[in-house]
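dumping this here before i forget
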Amino acid sequence: MDSNPFPHALFDGWSGVVRILIIAPAAYAALVLILRLSGKRTLSKLNAFDLIVTIAIGSTLASIITTKTLALVEGLTALLLLVLMQLVVTAASVRFKPVDALVKAEPTLLLRGGRPLPEAMRRQRVTQGEIEATARAAGVERLDQLEAVFLETDGSLTALPKSA
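structure:
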C-alpha cells in the first residue's frame, strides 16, 4: 500500500491523459454542433437565466472531459438535455407572459431627469461611481445631462442623454 498519495496527484498514468486527449476534442466538437443547431439564443447574454444555462453547459463539458467514470455518450446526453431545456424555456417565454416574467428580470430605472434614484440603486447594488462611469461612456460629463440610466436585464447599464 502506498502511504504517500501525493505523487498520484501529479501523474496517475498515461491512461487518464489519453482519455482526455480523445474525449475532449469529441465532446468539444459535439458541443459546437449542438450549439450551432440550437441557434444563437442558447448562449446569449440576455438575462440571469441565460447566464446560468451557459455556466451549466461549461460545467457539464468540464465534467465530461475530466470525470473518468462519466462516459462520453452520457455527458453528451446531459449537454443535449441542457440545450433542449433552454430551447423549451425560451420558446415558452416568447409565447407566454407568465413564463417570461418568471425567467427574466425587468430593466430598473436608476436615474431620471439627471437625478439618481437612491432606493433603486441600493436595491440593485449599483454605486454612484458606476452611474458616473456609464455617463462618461455615453459621452456625457455630468449626470444632469442624462435623461435616464437603466440597469438592463443582462446586468449592463444604459445611459440615455437628454435631447439637445
